[in-house]
Amino acid sequence: MALILKEVTKRFGNYTAVDGLNLSIPDREMFGFLGANGAGKTTTFRMILGLLDPTAGKITLDGKAIDYSQSSMIGYLPEERGLYPKLKVVDQIVYLARLRGMKKQAAIKELGYWLERFRIPEYFDNKIEELSKGNQQKIQFIAAVIHRPKLLILDEPFSGLDPVNVELLKDAVIELKNSGTTIVFSSHRMEHVEEMCEYLCIMQKGKPVVHGSLKEIKRSFGKKNLVIHADFDVSYLQSFPGVVKAKQTPEGIYLQITGEEAAHGIFRDIAGKGFVRKFVLEEPSLNDIFIEKAGASYE
Amino acid sequence: MIFSLKRQVLPMNNFFIILFHTYISKLKTKSFIVTTILTAAIMVGLTNMPRIIDFFNEGEENKKVAVIDESGQLFAPLQEQVKGVNKEITLARFEGSVTEAAEQVEDGKFTAILQVELSEGNLPAGTYKAMSMADTALAADLQTGLQQLKSVMASSQLNLTEAQLSQLYEPVAFEKEALEKEAKTEEELNQARGLVYVLLFVIYFSVIMYANMIAMEVATEKSSRVMEILISSVSPIKQMFAKILGIGLLSLTQLAVFLLAGYFSIKQNLASMEGGFFEFFGFGEVPLGTIIYSVVFFILGYFLYATLAAFLGSLVSRIEDVQQMITPMTLLVVAGFMIAMFGLNQPEAPFVTVTSFIPFFTPMLMFLRVGMLNIPLWETALSFAILIGTIIFLAIFGARVYRGGVLMYGKSNSFKDIKRALQLTKKQ
């Protein structure tokens, strides 16, 4: 389902949490939502879910305003993880699934499928408090997707998971996307967004500073990274024209340059000076873009 | 994988899903089951109180008192008088010395010693000696007996005729009549007092207990962060009322268990217990009206305080802060109960009348007045109207606070948070 945010603003008293946000998230796409802490991500999610009313602007899902009548089509994994600690996994999931309009039997069947898929079928009858944190997170993920939502909002879905479980969850998310779910997710892990999202938005102080498709963003960013490994000292490149940033590495230097032309100049310059083991011109990473645009790093 | 699951979008359904989930999951908790059984057991115990008391009293029914009568004239008339006071006291003439008698008391042959003699005016005087002064009833009975004997002797010394004597002792004619036609008689009032007393306790405890339960429930959902998932699928307002009704249903279930246990236990005992304990408490003939009023006032009181508790609970983010947050509310209930306890003896005091219209006190005080007095219908109706109005106001206001409150995290134990929560729900 296509999700469109039009001039969405949210003010709390004098504080503006989200300021004139325009987003259009195409149907069946995976949309990455980035931003430093306090950039307005969670507030935006809460407005999309209808928990908060925007001060101004409009949010529509397939052209319709979002309200509780659509709750069976929406799935939400909040940033703060939480389930009823005293309730059994099955009771918990069935309760939450029923609130999303599922029948009890269907929910139990789906739960079986997901537990199997996440390799924890033995926890069907356990209380939540008896599960490890990672496994609790899987249960919560199941709670968000069990009713096969058409719009899925994932707030930091992979935080606190080990790499094996991250892969399990990532596969599940990609599969959901391929089966037609529109997914919006926020993450602190740039590589996850880079790997999974076609479209993204970087928020800063309630405003989108970068917005569009990943390729487009990288291209318009202009700057590129240059990795040089050489047998001779290349530290003088720090002050070479076209170099924005430089970082010494044990085997050479890592440069951020203004564009491909700058690389030409550097290549010509070092070519005669000695043996160069490695000379790689790289696309900028999302992390570079994020640091520059949002002025902060998570890594 | 199944991709086309049947979707049933019936928003009203969610209300009942939450209601029954709250009800059933609470019903199944061990603490609920244990409390219910324990309280029911205590109720059966209380209603069997007379039997229990009698059971323990059986051993020492007959109290033997050694009477040392040096004059030789007092024993027989005293025995006569004491018999009239308490049949269970047996007097025995003791011929030995006081020391000998004391030894026999120590051996347990006698309960106490009563030394009687004729004093200066040729009137009886007595000294009571026992192992301890704990049994005040026995000493009092003996004293009464001796007092009566003294009166008889004194009047005969004054040479009063039999007729004069009976004139002197005839109790004054004193009849009480209420001018109001339907006012309760003294006897009825005593009965009502007992019943109202018990029902006031029930209202007091249950309002505190269930309001607490609601605040805890809300705070638990908030602190475990399950709240965000819940409110993303069901509106907070619907959720709040479903919860209040769910716990309300639970409270009615529990009270029904208590009522049944109490009713059958009393009914069983009633046959064997004519007069005494139960009649004092007004259980002889329970006025149906009072019971119905108590149920109505309980339900209204519950809604009032439950709404308050729900929105107060939504303001805290840690369970530990719940008690602090709802303390002002608890104090309101306690204050109402205190006034009600005072009002039991003076239900007509202007103070009680005025406070019975304050909605937070109405459930207890207006019930007290309805149960004990014969108050005009308009007063009851007015208090109902104020109470229901307040409940509606609190529900609307509470729902708005709740909606914002459940999204608020961080340090939160001041009433400033109510303002913050309201701000969250506003558009501007």
From TrEMBL, chain A:
Presence of the UniProt keyword Kinase in the record: no
InterPro entries: AAA+_ATPase, ABC_transporter-like_ATP-bd, ABC_transporter-like_CS, ABC_transporter_ATP-binding, DrrA1/2-like_C, P-loop_NTPase
Pfam families given in the database record: ABC_tran, DrrA1-3_C
Keyword set, alphabetical order: ATP-binding, Nucleotide-binding, Transport
Domain ABC transporter per the UniProt entry, residue ranges: 3-230
Keyword Iron annotated: no
Single annotated GO MF: ATP hydrolysis activity
Family affiliation: Belongs to the ABC transporter superfamily.
Name of the protein in question: ABC-2 type transport system ATP-binding protein
Species name: Mesobacillus foraminis
Taxon lineage: Bacteria, Bacillati, Bacillota, Bacilli, Bacillales
From TrEMBL, chain B:
Keywords: Cell membrane, Membrane, Transmembrane, Transmembrane helix
Subcellular location: Cell membrane
Domain ABC-2 type transporter transmembrane, chain residue ranges per copy: 30-399
Membrane-topology annotation of the record: Multi-pass membrane protein
Gene Ontology cellular component list: plasma membrane
Transmembrane segments: 195-219, 240-266, 286-313, 325-344, 350-368, 380-402
Pfam families with a match to the protein in the record: ABC2_membrane_3
Main location: membrane
MF terms (GO), sorted A to Z: ABC-type transporter activity
InterPro entries: ABC-2_transporter_component, ABC2_TM
Record-given protein name: ABC-2 type transport system permease protein
Organism: Mesobacillus foraminis
